[in-house]
Amino acid sequence: MKLLNRGSRSAPRLLTIAPMQRRDISEVARLEQSTYPSPWSTEVFRGEIARMARGDREYLVVRRGTDLIGYGGVMYVLDEAHITNIVVAETQRRSGVGRRLLAELCWRAIARGSSGLTLEVRASNTAAQALYARFGFQRAGVRRRYYENTEDAIVMWCHEIAGGEYARTLRGLCPEAAR
After folding, report:
1. Where would a tag sit more exposed on the chain, N or C end, judged by fewer CB atoms within 10 A?
2. Any catalytic annotation for residue 132?
3. Superfamily (CATH H level) for 2-177
4. Which residue among 59, 71, 132, 166 is the active-site one?
């Protein structure tokens, strides 16, 4: 899946969003390590890709040209979807990559038949919380000391995603990802 980066002042470079492959793991792990104090290991990503084959996980990578600039994942449990992670390279943040990736994960959860989406986000990550709120996620609780046993996680939910109203919301937020 490709789209042009319309906001670029330089020559636009194509964004490509595709399922994560084993060959992406080393780049994903480097991005993970540059983002989190306690990053997932390459073994964790290998396990998640194996679970993709069983159908209960979905992971996507985002490339601008040949550069891997983001990734995200969703875990399916019964009729609910849990966003496991969304990571965008620091140099690409606030450029629409996270919004585009979240929209794609939401569309995939809808296609899968999920009725709701949930996620955890660091209490300090107010930019991500604002993005999720735009997508209809509402604060539902707090997991104390969830990250590194020091920082709280805000639990957020977005219910009733299967209806046409949520699809209209997604189309409005990210028309380039519309279905």
Report:
1. C
2. yes
3. Gcn5-related N-acetyltransferase (GNAT) (3.40.630.30)
4. 132
